[in-house]
Write a structure and sequence with these properties.
This protein is of the alpha/beta class. It contains 10 helices and 17 strands. The strands form 5 sheets. A 7-stranded parallel β-sheet has the order 3-2-1-4-5-9-14, with helices on both faces. A 4-stranded mixed β-sheet has the order 7-6-8-17, with no helix packed on it. The protein has a two-stranded parallel sheet with strand order 10-13.
């Protein structure tokens, strides 16, 4: 068994996982149980996120069905807990800006409620919370003339003209994408991104106030079994997979050359395990990425390839969503250095397996 930071010697190690019935959270629960930990999962299991109560919940873990807004319930669940893994969130770009109150309630207020409960019970252990690469906005870029520069927001008139790559904000030259590192300026560009940045700031404030070791894991594009399907909030890999299952050629926005880092959910669960159990303090933010650059078109091709010619090649539509960013890929080196995380699943292998992996049943739009 790994040693949990600051766990009381001689007692069973007890870890609370919020969102433990969700896509990523349930895999974390499984891995923690397998590693020999005493796990309590907290999840509202609402109809907005689950068409039916999931049948994959680990029978060894405790499962508490309470919402993140329930301060008394969260406080009770924290009894005897040595470490907290905060995964509960409303995810995805959303439908439109009218979603803003729902995102703030579920993500910012939900996190604040958890931190308030931890403060009330005197929690001072390790906190690992799910963040996202969306806090960066665009990824890192270099200009041949001006070196590293921050790309500004893309303009609708450029996108309408098929000019998808952001130009240098100084001279207008073509920029070369690079790997973003954790010291990059945060530049959230949609509601979801803003709430993930807010979660990080709240966690930092809790660490300063209490001395707890608070870690933010900035996930890149996570995919794998139990991923939600057929909702506006589903990730792009899920949308491609659903199209293929319907024997429809998946549609790819822009020109398909958007650069991303697709990371398997098993690797994300491993990153959480390692961050929770690292014996030395590691407070701060970390990219959780594979380090492998993959375009949206390459991802779609990898999923389509698993259907052995039954599904047509992806269709590049030229359409866009103004809240999307062009390129964001990350360096995984800091997480490797600080707590030994390296992704294990190559994206070409993982995406092909994902094409036939079990998915979560479709549900109405809402928290995932």
């Amino acid at each position: 068994m790994h040693a949990v930071h600051d766990a009381a010697g001689g007692r069973d190690v007890r870890i609370l996982v919020t969102g433990g019935a969700g896509f990523i959270g349930s895999h974390i629960v499984d891995l923690l149980v397998h590693d020999g930990h005493d796990v309590i999962s907290v999840d509202a299991i609402t109809s907005a996120a689950h068409a039916a109560p999931p049948d994959y919940l680990n029978p060894v873990a405790e499962h508490w069905r309470i919402p993140m807004s329930d301060l008394a319930g969260i406080t009770d669940a924290l009894t005897g807990v040595d470490a907290v893994c905060h995964q509960a969130a409303r995810v995805g770009l959303g439908v439109d800006f009218d979603d803003i109150s729902d995102y703030v309630t579920d993500n910012a207020l939900g996190t604040a409620t958890l931190l308030r409960a931890m403060y009330r019970v005197g929690f001072r252990g390790r906190v690992v919370q799910a963040s996202s690469m969306v806090v960066y906005g665009e990824g890192a870029y270099t200009c041949p003339r001006h070196g590293p520069v921050a790309a500004g927001p893309r303009r609708a008139r450029d996108l309408d003209a098929g000019q998808f790559d952001p130009p240098c904000p100084i001279c207008g030259a073509h920029l070369k994408p690079a790997l973003v590192t954790e010291d990059a300026h945060l530049d959230p560009r949609n509601t979801y991104a803003a709430t993930k940045a807010h979660q990080e700031h709240l966690g930092r404030a809790f660490a300063i106030a209490t001395g707890a070791d608070v870690v933010a894991l900035r996930y890149h594009n996570v995919y794998g079994p139990r991923m939600p399907r057929d909702t506006p909030y589903a990730g792009v890999a899920s949308i491609v997979r659903s199209a293929c299952e319907n024997r429809t050629a998946p549609q790819v926005f822009e020109d398909g050359q958007q650069r991303r880092d697709f990371i398997h959910v098993d690797d994300v669960a491993l990153a959480n395990l390692l961050a929770l159990t690292e014996p030395q303090p590691i407070g701060g933010a970390y990219n959780i990425s594979s380090g492998q650059v993959c375009t949206i078109a390459q991802m779609a091709d990898a999923v389509v390839s698993a259907f052995d010619g039954v599904v047509s090649s992806p269709v590049v539509t030229g359409e866009y969503r103004l809240g999307d960013v062009r390129h964001v890929t990350a360096s995984p080196e800091l997480a490797a250095h600080r707590f030994g995380f390296r992704a294990q699943v190559p994206y070409r292998v993982g995406l092909r397996e994902f094409a036939t992996a079990p998915m979560r049943a479709s549900s109405p739009p809402g928290a995932v």
